């Protein structure tokens, strides 16, 4: 049903087959020594570059006279530490020297080069999809997809206002990311879809809402019983999970059950951008109606070359994924917290309590900031820490000891470390 709707929508916006003439910008050929992706070197284990951006210096804006203080970062999203990898540095630097920032325009004009196409091809293959479309940010990826999705009802209603049952019903988790929320607000404001929010991770509530929905076209983030379009935001598991870095869908072997996978290039990839892995028809619809994609300048060429290199390195250096999950298991063993992700939220309550805990961690030499409103509810402020491949067991021990001093309910049980740990299947 969905592919038919997309084809009908494309026919409305592309009567003259404009998308057939999507510009295939080809950059001047360079020699092997100048080629950004030639001779990328990978390694069997960590190098000194891996901790380059984990060990930083920070100034206290309230006490500049105190000077800079060394900090160990536990607050970034560079899970595989690829942002400082020699191959990523080399690719971005060579691209900048050979092409500058690349052709500067939107993707539909001249911004979409052969390097952009190579990155899209690699990401589509990784997620086992026909096609992929990259955006300047992960935020833009979600809003571009939702913008295109919302247009389907008006495009297929023969020039009249869509009837209630013709609108798309979008079911969204109550704690979805701001990029999804803003995209939903956009389609809701234009009366192109009905947005229904279900309680966080409450499948019973979702089932009830789905069963009572009169809409024929339903979009949600889970599907077994109802057979609707299945879209996931895979921002934090791309490259981190799965034998080949294909994310959470590879872990569970459900790539064929996911219609569209939205992800980020700003986290484990260590670069910047977003992507939408989908069918060829969905890609055409997003190119034709995804406003944040259409009206944004394409990502600069050095960034795209760096992304290409990072994806290639992550596939070969699988030990990085193993190291991340080893840190997760060590944290779990030391604290008794049964964490299952490199992202760990420690809810402390009020904003004041979170700021006090964050200050304590900064004083102890850990860059671990408080997460406060509007990101979270006023009574659910927290410390949000992230574990990376280049953190060590000793880093985790020191972190846990410091946390136990500022979070009184925080348990510490280090006995399990010596006994050896069983690590989860990637």
Automatic annotation (TrEMBL):
A GO CC annotation given for this chain:
endoplasmic reticulum membrane
Cofactor(s) needed, names only, are: pyridoxal 5'-phosphate
Reaction(s) catalysed (UniProt annotation)? L-serine + hexadecanoyl-CoA + H(+) = 3-oxosphinganine + CO2 + CoA
Q: Where's it found, cell-wise?
A: Endoplasmic reticulum membrane
Q: Please give the Gene3D superfamilies that the UniProt record associates with this protein.
A: Aspartate Aminotransferase, domain 1 (3.90.1150.10), Type I PLP-dependent aspartate aminotransferase-like (Major domain) (3.40.640.10)
Domain named Aminotransferase class I/classII large is located at: 217-403
| EC number(s) on file | 2.3.1.50
Membership in a protein family: Belongs to the class-II pyridoxal-phosphate-dependent aminotransferase family. BioF subfamily.
**Name used for this protein in its record:** serine C-palmitoyltransferase
